[in-house]
Specification:
- The protein is of the alpha+beta class and 204 residues long.
- Helix content is 13%, strand content 31%.
- It has one domain: Sandwich (Jelly Rolls), CATH 2.60.120.590.
- The protein is globular, with a radius of gyration of 16 Å.
- The chain starts with 7 loop residues before the first strand and ends in a 5-residue tail after the last strand.
- The mean pLDDT is 97.
- Bound molecules: N-(carboxycarbonyl)-S-(naphthalen-2-ylmethyl)-L-cysteine (MD3) and fe (iii) ion (FE).
- The site of fe (iii) ion (FE) has 3 residues, from loops.
- N-(carboxycarbonyl)-S-(naphthalen-2-ylmethyl)-L-cysteine binds next to strand 5, strand 7, strand 10, strand 11 and strand 12.
C-alpha cells in the first residue's frame, strides 16, 4: 500500500466502463469543437509532448511569446472553448467540497511516448479550490512530491476511470507523468492516455 501526501485523494475506478465510454464521447465532442494542439514552452518554444485542448469559460494555454496563461478562446481557432460536460460538473460537485463551479477543464492527450515533467500548477488565482483529475485510456505512472522541487516524491499508477483530487497541502505540490503504459487499456481506439483536469481559476 502507498501512503499519499496530505491533501491527495485517489478514487480508483470512480467511473466504471460505461461511464468512461460516456465521458469519452463527451471528450470527442469537445475535441471536434476545439481541436487538440501542440503547446510550446515559454521562451524556448520547445514543443511539449502532450497535445492539449480545453473546455470551460477559461482554458490553460502556453506559447513561446506569451507563456502560461488562461484565456477564453482557443489559441488556433480563436473560438470560445466548448462547455464543460455535465458529467464532469457533477463530479466536481461530488468530490471538490468547493461551493463554486470549475472554470477550466484542460484535456491532455498523451501518446505512448509522451511525458509531463515535474511542475507546479500555479497559474490560477484561487489555490483554495482543489484540482480534480480524471484518467481515461492507458495506465500511467504519476509522481507527486512536496511544495519544493527537491522534496521526496511518491509514485502512483493511474488507470482508466481513476479520479484524483489535489487539495489543501497538495494543491501546490510538484507532480508529473513519468510514463504511459501503452496497450494497458482498450477504451481508446489508439494507444495513449487522456487526462481531464478541472480547475477553479478566478477568486469568486
Ligand atoms: C497535483 N496533468 O495538466 S493530473 C496538468 O496526468 C497535469 O495530465 C497531469 O499535471 C496529467 O497540469 C496530472 C493530476 C494533477 C493535476 C493537478 C495537480 C495532479 C496535481 C495540481 C497539484 C498537485
Ligand atoms: Fe499539473
Amino acid at each position: 500500500m502507498t501512503t499519499l501526501p496530505d491533501g491527495v485523494r485517489h478514487y480508483p475506478e470512480h467511473f466504471d466502463l460505461e461511464a468512461q465510454q460516456a465521458l469519452l464521447e463527451d471528450v470527442r465532442h469537445v475535441v471536434r469543437q476545439a481541436p487538440l494542439y501542440v503547446p510550446t514552452m515559454p521562451r524556448t518554444g520547445k514543443p511539449m509532448s502532450v497535445r492539449m485542448t480545453n473546455c470551460g469559460t477559461l482554458g490553460w494555454v502556453t506559447d513561446r511569446q506569451r507563456g502560461y496563461r488562461y484565456q477564453a478562446t482557443h489559441p488556433e481557432t480563436a473560438a470560445p472553448w466548448p462547455k464543460i460536460p455535465s458529467m464532469l460538473l457533477d463530479l466536481w460537485r461530488e468530490v471538490s467540497a468547493y461551493p463554486h463551479p470549475p472554470e477550466a477543464c484542460l484535456v491532455n492527450f498523451y501518446s505512448a511516448d509522451a511525458r509531463m515533467g515535474l511542475h507546479q500548477d500555479r497559474d490560477e488565482e484561487d489555490f483554495s479550490a482543489p484540482v480534480v483529475s480524471v484518467s481515461l485510456g492507458d495506465d500511467c505512472l504519476f509522481r507527486i512530491g512536496g511544495v519544493r522541487r527537491a522534496d521526496a516524491t511518491t509514485s502512483l499508477r493511474l488507470r482508466s476511470g481513476d479520479v484524483i483530487v489535489l487539495g489543501g497541502q497538495s494543491r501546490l505540490a510538484y507532480h508529473g507523468v513519468d510514463r504511459i503504459y501503452a496497450g494497458t487499456s482498450m477504451l481508446l481506439k489508439t494507444e495513449g492516455r487522456i487526462n481531464l483536469t478541472l480547475r477553479r481559476v478566478t477568486i469568486p
